[in-house]
Amino acid sequence: MYPSNPTAPFHTGFFPQHITLVSVGENFLPIGYWTVISKNPFRFLLCMGVGNYSLMLLKKYKEAALHFMPWNERERVARAGHLSGRDVNKAETLGYTLRPAEKLKHTKLIEGADLIFETVVLRELIGLSTEFLPFVLDVVAVHGNLKPQERQPILFLSDEDFATLGEKWVYHK
Fold first, then answer.
1. pTM across the whole model
2. Residue 17 forms beta bridges with which residues?
3. Are 91 and 32 in contact (CB under 8 A)?
4. How many domains, in total, are found in the chain?
């Protein structure tokens, strides 16, 4: 639309981001670059970093599961981002138990998540970024029923900093 206008430099003002632990096959990694893009049909947009082992698996299997882990899992979730599935079995190294998915053929689910969304790739969006490859994912199964008010999400603040919600408040009319 405005091809002659350069973009502004990257800025972290959009943080914090809610981390999801994304499994593909038996590998997994934490990702903050995701969002809901449709309620009907239920769809996510997920941006996976170029060069990640999980990206190769996502292209191969065309499926993934998004796990929203509780705050008490923050250390293992963060550590998963510093290990490569090319070199180690992350579930074994981090002490996670994997179980079969309900709808996915190759991807395992991680025990202990507050919520899990099983997804299949609808579309890969090529040519939008040199750092990330965006995917449109259709949600095919949902596990867990905790309400947002009952959760303590893992929020990524950037670099190595994380947080959770420390206070709850309800507006009464």
1. 0.92
2. 156
3. no
4. 1
The residue range of the domain holding 37 is: 15-163
Distance, in Å, from the CA atom of 33 to the CA atom of 132, rounded to the nearest integer, reads 9
CA angle 18, 114, 84 (to 5 degrees): 60
C-beta neighbour count of 78 within 10 angstroms: 15
For the stretch 135-152, pLDDT in tens is 999 999 999 989 888 899
Please report, for the domain that includes residue 126, its CATH number. Answer: 2.30.110.10
Looking at the domain assignment, is residue 154 inside a domain? yes
Q: Chain centroid to CA 13: how far?
A: 20
Residue 54 has pLDDT above 80, yes or no: yes
In-domain check, residue 139: yes
- Residue 152 counted as domain residue: yes
